[in-house]
Each structure stands twice: as structure tokens, then as C-alpha cells.
Design goal:
By secondary structure, the chain is mainly α. Helix content is 60%, strand content 4%. The radius of gyration is 30 Å and the shape is elongated. Bound molecules: arginine.
């Protein structure tokens, strides 16, 4: 092979990390060949032991720059150094096509548990942050405009539920990785030896054996699902990151991020930049890119294995690596973040209670559509008089509608406003505590 082609052809730098899966799959295959009578029991055992010795050598590292094309040829060469010519019998009835599809799925199943654990820790940090914010009432926003008061806990938990859904999505992708063991599909048409695929399935921890060899060597649906789970998680993390940037700004002043996760400016001595949140937000681009890359890679491929598929691993590996990189610092920053009341949280505008004022009229029998318009007039009147809504005299209210009575002053309590929202899912203390209880329960598993 010409040198220019060799560098394009080689994937060892990327797929070297699949060596543990390649060893496991190969040991199972050697035993299956012996079980099928293709190899003697002794040969089967010698291969399994030889592969064990290869694993030992590989675990010491230093093979990234080996001259081999990919991890599969590397393992086979090293096996030859351990068991001699017998190594040449391992590839009987097997192709690198069903081999790599199997290795990649085994990796996918394993990597999910690391991501799941990191997500569980992030979730626990959000729960703890919510617990610290249960007494604090802050302005909630729609369209980034102050809208209604919220318990800070409600905001923190609003970022937890997407993460819990992400855990489920990763779980689902991992289950799909374990459905349809490719090993035993050969290059495309199946295996000509009486291999016990059911035994292979059980040994390698798959849930089922693939039904169609041609589909099986090319099916990367599970990888796409995992790339999607990663991209969507990235979207969620970027929104959380954006909120952290905003809430920790002087303008919002609702949250302080721990110093160890921020940096100063090389120029402006007063700066405390929310780098952790910005870097997490910034990493989302590559998570989305890996999903689009994988979708594009698969589009329009003809049936069966195509060499294009060699590109699949780099993309999904990057998704996993990126997540493992960003989740711990984000968790650490949230674990030590503190709610503060320096900016907008400090003196909240009574305008946040305009909806409560409309609800007040509703309780007096005014239809909501009408009360909404009436309160709009109250707000304008207060603006014209240069007064806050809460200091507007009762007469001014009553000029707009006679249903406003002396008790209207009771509406001007942020505590009363949040406590009114007691239906499940709302921001009243009881509803938030119920939410916290189910979140804690979900995070125990
Ligand atoms: N390195 C290849 C990959 O990652 C292994 C399969 C090669 N198969 C082949 N027919 N050349 O897809």
C-alpha cells in the first residue's frame, strides 16, 4: 500500500481504545469455534489464553503508534507472537465487519454506565442547590423579561428534569446497542460453521442475536441514538450554562459561582468570569456536530458494510469524551454555587405580581380575559403616577373596577404569590418539596 493511502487507511489511533472489547469478542469467538468443532478444545483454550496474554501487554499501553492498520489486526499480530501459527485460525468464519460492529456495541454499553454516573452526580448537585434555594424567592422570566416570582429551587429543579430524561435516553441507546449481536454475521452473508450464536449472545451480554447478517454489519442505529442523546444533553447543558452566566452577572446577581471554576481577566482586575458555564456551553457545538456528522456519514450508504463506517467511532468517542470532560466541573461548580441577593433578587418589582392581581379579580367573579385588561390599566395608571403597583392608592384601583377592595393590598406579597401555585409542579413550597422527593427517589437508582 502506498504511504499516502496508508495514513488514510489506518484507524489504529482511534480504535486502539476498543482493545478490551476486541479481546473479549475474540475470546468468545475462539470458544465458539471450539464449540462448533471447527477448532479442537485445546486450540480454543490456547487462543483464549493467548488473548489473555495480549490483553496484559495492551494494558501496559504504548501501542498507539504500532504499524498495524487497526486494533483488530494489531490484536491478531500480537496473538501470533504469543501462540504462533494457531493465531491464524482465530479469524475463521469471522470478518472484521461483524467484529468491529460487535466491539463498538460492547464499548457503547460500557461507556453508558460512566455517563450515567456522571449525570447522577450532576443531578444530585442540582437537588442540593435546589434545597439551598427553597426559601429564596427570585424573579422568574419569560422572553428574558421579569414575569412572576419563583422559588430559586424551582429554577434549579427546572434543569434537573431534562437531565433525568437524558439519563433515560442514554439507557435506551445502551439497550439498543445490546440488541442484535452482530458476531456470527460474517462479512455480510452469515457464518458457514455451526456457531452457537445464542451462547455468544449470553457470553457477551447481549439481549438478542441479529436477525439479518447483511443488516447487522451495517446497523449503527444505536450509535446514532447515543449521539443524539449526547447532542440533546449538550443542548440542556448549554441552557444551564447560559442561565449560570446570566444569573451570576452583576445585572441579575442571583447566584455566585465558586471561585475555583471562574477566572479573572488579564486586563480588568475586577472581573470574575463564569468560564465553567461558558466552556460547557461552548462544547455543545461539537456534540451536535458529532450527531450531524454521523447522520451524514450513514445517509445513502449501499447495503452491507462500507469503509465509510470506519469514521463512526471517532465521532461517538468524541461525544463520550466531551461529556466525561464537561460533567465533573459543571457538577463541582453547582455543588458550591450559592444563591445571593445582590441584584434583581434584592428589590423585586411589584409588577411581578400583576398576574396575581388579575387572579384576585377572578376570585371576585370577574372573567379572566376582563381582569387581564383591567390590571393592564392599573399598571399604566401606576406608571403615569410614577408609583409602584403596590403603593398605588386604593381609590386609583377602585376607579378602574369596583371589585378592588381594601384586601387588594394582601396581593402584594411575593410569598403569597408563590404559595398560591400549589398545584403539582408549581412553585409553592409543598409542590417543590414533592418535586424534590421524587427527584431524590429517581437519583437513588
Ligand atoms: N477499521 C475498520 C472499521 O473501523 C474495520 C473493518 C474493516 N473492514 C473491512 N472490510 N475493511 O470499520
Amino acid at each position: 500500500m502506498l504511504p499516502q493511502m496508508e495514513s488514510l487507511n489506518r484507524s489504529l489511533g482511534t480504535d486502539i481504545r476498543l482493545w478490551p472489547q476486541d479481546i473479549r469478542g475474540s475470546q468468545a469467538w475462539a470458544s465458539a469455534l471450539a464449540g462448533a468443532g471447527v477448532l479442537s478444545q485445546q486450540e480454543g483454550e490456547a487462543l483464549v489464553e493467548g488473548l489473555e496474554a495480549v490483553a496484559h501487554r495492551l494494558s501496559a499501553g504504548g501501542f498507539d503508534d504500532a504499524p498495524d492498520e487497526d486494533v483488530h489486526t494489531l490484536v491478531e499480530r500480537l496473538l501470533g507472537e504469543e501462540v504462533g501459527e494457531l493465531a491464524g485460525k482465530l479469524h475463521t468464519g469471522r470478518s472484521r465487519n461483524d467484529q468491529v460492529a460487535t466491539d463498538f456495541r460492547l464499548w457503547g454499553m460500557e461507556v453508558t454506565s460512566a455517563i450515567d454516573e456522571a449525570l447522577r452526580e450532576l443531578g444530585s448537585a442540582l437537588v442540593a442547590l435546589a434545597e439551598r434555594g427553597i426559601d429564596l424567592i427570585v424573579p422568574g422570566h419569560t422572553h428574558l423579561q421579569q414575569a412572576q416570582p419563583l422559588r430559586a429551587a424551582q429554577w434549579a429543579l427546572s434543569h434537573l428534569w431534562p437531565i433525568l430524561r437524558d439519563r433515560n435516553r442514554f439507557q435506551g441507546a445502551s439497550e439498543r446497542a445490546g440488541e442484535g449481536l452482530p458476531l456470527g454475521s460474517g462479512a455480510l452473508a452469515g457464518c458457514p460453521f455451526p456457531i452457537d450464536r445464542e451462547w455468544l449472545r449470553e457470553t457477551l451480554g447481549f439481549r438478542s442475536v441479529s436477525e439479518n447478517s447483511l443488516d447487522s454489519v451495517a446497523d449503527r442505529d444505536w450509535a446514532l441514538e447515543m449521539a443524539f442523546a449526547g447532542a440533546l444533553l449538550g443542548i440542556h447543558l448549554s441552557r444551564l450554562g447560559e442561565d449560570l452566566v446570566l444569573l451570576s452577572s452583576q445585572e441579575f446577581g442571583v447566584l455566585r459561582l465558586p471561585e475555583g471554576f471562574c477566572t479573572g481577566s488579564s486586563l480588568m482586575p475586577q472581573k470574575r468570569n463564569p468560564d465553567v458555564a461558558e466552556l460547557v456551553r461552548g462544547k455543545t457545538g461539537r456534540l451536535v456536530g458529532n450527531l450531524t456528522g454521523l447522520l451524514t456519514l450513514l445517509k445513502g450508504l449501499p447495503s452491507g458494510y462500507n469503509r465509510d463506517l470506519q469514521e463512526d467511532k471517532e465521532l461517538l468517542f468524541d461525544t463520550a469524551d466531551t461529556l466525561k470532560l464537561v460533567l465533573p466541573p459543571l457538577t463541582g461548580a453547582l455543588a458550591d454555587a450559592e444563591f445571593t441577593l445582590e441584584g434583581e433578587g434584592q428589590d423585586m418589582d411589584a409588577g411581578l405580581l400583576a398576574t396575581d392581581l388579575a387572579d384576585y379579580l377572578v376570585r371576585k367573579g370577574v372573567p379572566f380575559r376582563e381582569s387581564h385588561g383591567l390590571v393592564g390599566r392599573v399598571v399604566r395608571r401606576a406608571e403615569d403616577l410614577g408609583l409602584s403597583l403596590s403603593s398605588l392608592p386604593l381609590d386609583a384601583f377602585r376607579e378602574i373596577h369596583p371589585s378592588f377592595e381594601a384586601d387588594v393590598k394582601e396581593v402584594f406579597s411575593f410569598e403569597a404569590s408563590v404559595e398560591a401555585r400549589a398545584a403539582p409542579g408549581g412553585t409553592a413550597r409543598g409542590a417543590v418539596e414533592a418535586q424534590l422527593a421524587s427527584a431524590r427517589e429517581l437519583l437513588t437508582s
